[in-house]
Amino acid sequence: MKGLQPALFLDRDGVVNREIGYLYKPEQVEFTAGIFELCRYAQARSYKLIIITNQSGIARQLYSEADFHSLMQWMSEEFLRARIRVDGYYFCPHHPEHGIGPYRKECKDRKPQPGMLLQASRDHGIDLARSVLVGDRCSDIQAGAAAGISNLVLLRGTEPAGCAAVPAHAVVSDLAEIIPFLTVSSVPA
Ligand SMILES: [Mg+2]
User: What is the rounded distance in angstroms from the CA atom of residue 161 to the CA atom of residue 165?
Assistant: First the structure.
C-alpha cells in the first residue's frame, strides 16, 4: 500500500540477545552474533526496526516496568553506538496464569496473539505483508502469521523440536541467513 514501509520485527530475548530467562539488567545482555549487521542492512533498505517482546517477568514481579524501560533505553543506546536507530519496541507485561495482581490476565498483546504487531503497524505505518519477523519461539511465528506477515523466520535453538504445527516459516541457524529475506531495495518517497 502506498506510503507504508516494511519492518523487520525482532523478538528480543533469544533473537536480539541470548535467552537466559527473565533478563532485565545490562550486564546480563549478550547480543546475538550478527544482530547489528542484520539491523544495519535492514535500516539501509528502509525497513523499520521494531522489537516485540513478551515480558512475563513483569507479570511475575521479578522486575518492574521501570526496570524493563531502563534496559530498553540502554539497549537503544547500544544500537545507536552501532549506528542503528530502533524505531520502536512493544512489550506485554501480562500472563494469564502466573501474573500477580493486575498483571494476571489474558491479553491480546501476548504472543501468540498479534496485538503488539498490529499496534506497531498502526503507529509506524507498516506494510505487514512485506515485513519480516524473526523469533526464537513458535509463539513468535504464530503471532506473525496472525498479523498477516508473510516472511516468518524461526532462529533455531530455543525450540529443539521446531514448530511443525505452525504456519509456513523458514528456519535459520544464523542471523546472517536472514539477509536474503530483506528484498526491498528502496521505498518510493
Ligand atoms: Mg524469545
Answer: 11
Residues around ion ligand 1, judged by CB within 5 A, are 11, 13-14, 136
Confidence class for position 2, pLDDT limits 50, 70, 90: low
Span 77-104, pLDDT tens digits: 999 999 999 999 999 999 999 999 999 9
Residue 89 corresponds to which amino acid? Y
Q: Please give the positions annotated as active site.
A: 11, 13
- CA 156–ligand 1 middle distance (angstroms): 11
All domains of the chain in start order, with CATH: 7-181 (3.40.50.1000)
Classify residue 177 by burial, with Cβ atoms within 10 Å: 0-12, 13-18, 19+.
Answer: middle
Instruction: Note the pLDDT tens digit of each residue in 53-83.
Output: 999 999 999 999 999 999 999 999 999 999 9
Ligand 1 centre from 139 Cα, in Å? Answer: 9
36: which 3 cell numbers? 547489528
Give residue 117 CA to ligand 1 midpoint distance, Å: 15
DSSP string, 46-106: T-EEEEEEE-HHHHTTSS-HHHHHHHHHHHHHHHHHTT----EEEEE--BTTT--GGGBS-
Terminal-to-terminal C-alpha distance of the chain: 13
Cβ-Cβ contacts under 8 Å for 132 (sequence gap 6 or more): 6, 7, 8, 9, 42, 47, 149, 151, 153, 178, 181, 182
